[in-house]
Every structure is written in structure tokens, then in C-alpha cells.
Amino acid sequence: MLRNTPGRKNNYLYLLAVFILLFTVSCVPKTLVSVPGYPGAASPKPQKHPSATVDQKLKKAEELCYEKKYRECAGVYEELLKENPRNRELTPLILSRLQKVFLKTGDYEKSEEYGNRIISEYPDYRGMPGVHVDLIEAYLGKGDLDRALEDGQRLWTYLGDQEDKARLAYILARVFSEKKDSLNAFYWLVESERLAASAELKDRIYQQMTKVCSQLSKSQVSSLLPEFTGRFPELWLQTRLIEILVDDGDLDKAAEKLNSLADTYPMHPLAKKFAQLKEAIEQQRNVDDTAIGCLIPLNGPLQPYGRRLLRGLYLAQELYNLSTWGKPIKIIVKDSSDSNGVVTAVDELVNDHHVLAIIGPLSRKVVDDAAREAQKLRVPIITLSQKTSVADIGDYVFRVFLTNKAQVKLLVAYAAGELELERFGILYPNDSYGRFFEKAFSEELEKFRVKVMAKVGYDPGTTDFTLPIRNLFVEAGLPLPDRHKKEKPISVLSPPAFDAIFLPDQVQTASLIASQLVYNDVIGVRLFGTNLWNTPRLEKEYAPYLEGAIFVGGFFAGSTRPEVQQFVERFEASYDEKPQYLEAQAYDVLNLLLAAKNNAENQSRGAIRVELYRIKDFEGVTGKMSILPSGDVDKELFLLSVKNGKITEVRIDQDRLYMKAKAME
């Protein structure tokens, strides 16, 4: 009889272990696919184990992505996708990686395409929450903020993974920030920071919090501080308070608080911001309150416009220095012709000449760069560009310009509220200018239930308008009569096709269209135009066919307003010619800035900025001006007409007109 010795017992255990191992191996399904980082799941069809080549390509793609060689990385993944077009485990992984790669490159359409493919073809993919988060980030990148917000808030309730939720909260914060809802953006960033585990995401949260806090008002910061005392993001709120003190011109208090923070938290993520604020305070203290910087095109195709701007600036400077008991102001001019040199020009005005504020530039090509640099250096800049988005750059950036929307608003209010016109036709050049006015004019007319009977575009440069005119009447349901058949003119048919026709084009083109309307027996229809008609050439060359036409202008030298007459007299005495819009605009902008300077509590740039925002109904030669919270200037325009071959001003109480028009909406 065998005895159970320790050695024999170990042999039995060994044999038993081998038996169990063999049995286990025989029971493992052969349908599992193993992908690094994504353990496989059962597939309806047998799949081969990924080869070493697949593993190597995946590793290579990840290395390229880590090195930020996204184009090469995408190429490797796309090659893998061709080799594995329907692998239940591998294909959705490759698609999700491609979705992320194109998200990083800014190709949001491509990223969205891959994300949607995963959702439609692989709904059970275990990485689906991340796919949805990436899709929402793609919507944000495309500028589809409403969709990003709606889908993001819906997804929030379903997400379980903490890091996915942290990323989504960060994206929603960015969406709210883009929508200018800084308070909601703030709270989403707080939530994102609470959930975030990765250092990379936390760094992005800190950077975004700096941006969001810069949008918070003083009252918002004051109400938030008690709630976040002793925890994130208290220091961001404290730093924003210091910014506000600097912007208000309270430099001593700002410096005291800043030094305390910088000494207590020398290694904080905001340390760089502390240094920038210290530099800003020193720059604010080292200001020459008699120096005004000007960015003017002194070379290139815009040089003639720059020369006209300087005339208006120098006249305003001369009259101010003659009328003040204080120190005379000086104008420091820098060339804004070169887009590469405009940032240097702003730096020189601030750091070398220590200017109180900057006027200009005019060109839309350089205005963004100049505005960003001025915002960074915290110096007020009043731009003269037609670019509408420039004031969004920051709260030190202002814009004075005759806007197209303001033109449309006045023309439609006068047509509907004063003339009580009911039917409009629109003939417009098929370019960006014409299409903008066609759309804006139509939308404004709809507010007053004024019917747009027809609108027809034509090729820019056209000289024969027979077909566009005929198409305009055909579209309105009233074919243009054949003038050779002695039918009645359109104007006396009942009901008339149009009360008025809007022609947003150069005055010479408008005059040509008007003459061809008369040739086709279309008479008695009032014409409306834009500020492009406000030129001396109208009276000299084009007045006969534009009698009774209505248009707008940013300035009218023939106005009977006393301030305009005085300006025109002084300008003619200095330059022996009548001023036009650019001269008047520059004259008004400098006087606007000097009014803020005279009202400021101290002569810091921050104090000037505060006073600029307080300006309401400033009486300039280009009309009344008020600075809006956006930094844009709400400006009264001149309503003009042609009477007896001369441009005349239509004097009307515009405030009353707008109130009447508002009641009609």
C-alpha cells in the first residue's frame, strides 16, 4: 500500500494542475480578439488574433500622435482601417482614434464624420461615451454652439465615467464662454476641476478660468468670492478684482493686493498673470497724459485715406489746444500700412511714447492685431475699421464706424414709419456687399410687415439692366410692359408693383439703373440707396435720374446744424476744400477721447477707459454718439435726399422715428 508521502502528494497536485489547465484552455472561445487597451468581447464570427504588424502600427500611430505629427498619425490609422474594415473590435477603435486625431488638427467635419460612423455602425462600442464627448467638442469647434450645448447637457445626465464628465464640463464651459455667458462658464469650470484627474486637463481648466474670470463684472466677482473662499477658484476671483482696480485707475490699491498675492503664491499657475499685472500697473503709472497715439496708413493704397484722417485729427488738436488752460496735447503718428509692423507700432506707442490712448487703425487687415496688442497692454484703442468683430477682442477696444446695419435700420424706419411705404423691390449686385444689404434690408422690412414684392441680383459691372429690371417685375407678378405698344407706365397701373426700389450699389450704377427704369416707363417709384451715394459726384453727374431718392451718410457738409457749419468753415479755412466723412470721423473721435480725458478722475489709461464707456449722446459733427457696453459706438446718421439736383438733409427726430417704428413692429 502506497503511503501519501510529501513528494508523492506533490506529484498528484501537479497532475491535477496540468489537467485543469488543459481543460481551461480547451474551453476558451476562439472568437475573442485582444486589442491593447481595449479587451475583446465575443464576436458573431470567428476573428483572427491581431498580428504583430497590427500591434506595431497601433504603437507607431500612438507615437506619432504623442509627437504631434497628426497627419502622419492619421495616415497610419487610415491604412489600418483599410486593412480591417469590418472588425467588430478593432475597427471602432481605429475610427475613434481617427475622430480624436482630426479633432486635434481642427478638421471638425472629418472628426464628426468618424464619430457618427461609430454611432451608426458600432452602437455597442465600449468607448461610446468618449465618442459622444468628442462629437460635442467638434460642434464647438465648428461654431455650432446651440447644438453643442443641447447635446452636451443631455449627455451629462448619462455619463458615468468621471474623466469623461470632467472633459464634458470643460467643453460646456467653453461653449458658454463663446456665448458670452461667463457666469455659467465659471460654474462648469468649477465642476470640471472637481472631477478632473489628469494634469493636462487641469492646466486647460486653469487657462480657461483665467479667460472666463476676465469677463466677469465687479458685482459678479463680489458675489462669487464668499462662495469660494478657501477653495478653487478663489485666487482667480481675487486676481480679477485686481484687474478691475487697474482698469478703474485705482493703481495703489491694485498694487497692494497684487503684491500680497504674488508673495504668498509665487509658484501658483497665476504667477505669470501676476507678473503681467505688475507690468501693467507700472505702465499705467508711466503715462504721458498729453500724448495720443495714432495708427494711420502712411504708405500703400490706403495712404490717401490716411492723409484725410490726419487733417481731421490735426484740426481737432489745434482747436483743443487753443481752448484749454491745461497742457497742450500732442499726436504721435505711427504707420499702420504694414500688417507685420502694426504690433511693433502699438508697442512703441505704449512703451516708448507712453501714450494715454490710441486712435486707429483704419484697415481691416491690421485692426485685429493692433487691437489684441492694445488689449494685452491695457491701453484704450478706438479703431476706425468697418470690421464688426474687432470690439469683441476686449474691453479696451472700441470702434467708431458707419455700420451697414445702422444704415438699414434708419432707411427702413423712415420708409415704413414716416413714408408708410408698403411694397418694395430690391435690385442688388451679386457680391458680398449687395448680398448683405439684400438680406439685412429684407429682414428689417419683415419686422414692419412691409412686403418685399421681388428681389433680383445682377452681375457686378453690368451696364445693361433691361433683363434684371424685367425679371424684377415678373417676379412681382406684373410683367414689364413693352414700351413700344404704348401701354400705360408701370407707375400708374393699379395697384402699383412697387412703392420703392432699394439699390445697394455705387451711385453711378444706381443712376444707370434709374435711367433705364425711366426708359422702360417705370416712373414715380422712389429709390433708396446707401452711403455710397453720398458723394459730390452725385450732384455733378448723376442727379437728374435720382431726384427724390433717399439714402444715408455718415457726414453731410451741407448740413444746417451749427456744429457742422462751424467745423466746415474751420476746415475750409485750413485746407481750402470741404471735409468729407473720414476727416469728420477723425475730428469726432479725437474730441470723443478728449472728452473722456477731461472727465476722468485721474489720467491713467484705466480711468480713460471707464469714462469712454460712460459717454452718451456726445454731439459730434457726424451726429450724436454713445458708446455701447460692447465697445461699439451707436451713432446717429444723416438722412439725405436729392432735391432740385442737390443733396439735402432730411431733418427728422430720429429718436421719435425709431420709437414710432418700434411700435409698428
Describe the protein's architecture and organization:
Helix 15 links the parallel strand 1 (291-296) and strand 2 (330-335). This protein has a domain at 404-553: Rossmann fold (3-Layer(aba) Sandwich). It is globular, with a radius of gyration of 34 Å. The protein contains 26 helices and 15 strands. The protein is of the alpha/beta class and 665 residues long.
Helix content: 40-55%
Q: For this entry, what is the oligomeric state of its chains?
A: single chain
CATH H-level superfamily of the domain at 404-553: Response regulator
Task: Give me the Rg, rounded.
Answer: 34 Å
- CATH architectural type of the domain at 404-553: 3-Layer(aba) Sandwich
- Derived from helix and strand composition plus strand pairing, the structural class reads alpha/beta
How many β-strand stretches?
Answer: 15
Strand order of the largest sheet: 2-1-3-4-5
Mean pLDDT: 88
Number of alpha- plus pi-helical segments: 26
**Sheet with the most strands, sense and barrel status:** 5 strands, parallel
CATH third-level topology of the domain at 404-553: Rossmann fold
* Gap between N and C termini: 111 Å
So what's the overall shape? globular
> What is the percentage of strand-forming residues?
5-15%
Low-confidence stretches: 1-49
Name some characteristics of this structure.
single chain; 665 residues; alpha/beta; Rossmann fold; 5-stranded parallel sheet; 4-stranded parallel sheet; 26 helices; 55% helix; 10% strand; globular; disordered N terminus
